[in-house]
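Aim 2 progress. For Plantacyanin, the working sequence is reproduced below.
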Amino acid sequence: SMARATMVPTLLVLLLVVCCATTVVHGKEWTVGDNKGWSFGVSGWESGKHIQSGDVLVFKYNPSMHNVVQVGEGDYNSCRVTGPSRTYTSGNDHIQLARRGKAFFICSLPGHCQQGMKIDVTA
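Predicted structure tokens for this construct:
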């Protein structure tokens, strides 16, 4: 019975290690714009936040009014989608920042990016 008694704490430690390992991989969730969500004037929400690769950006919005497009820096600056891009339209998009560096997001509906629906995140 001694062997069994020492097994239990070992299993608990293993479980803790596994749980912690998965949270590190997934990272922290950030709701873009906090309680206002992905909306006009959200630009600047990202400044001063310690966002890291592996973290997840959550974009909450009305999908009949807005979208989220991940673009390159040029398209971000010009508010036009001309280069490679990826569009999200669910209204509750969870986008993981897979790698270090900058990531650029805009709403591609006419005039929306110009009204501050854009963020650039450095992971």
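Strands lie at 29-31, 56-60, 68-71, 86-88, 92-96, 102-106, 118-122. This observation will guide construct design in the next reporting period.
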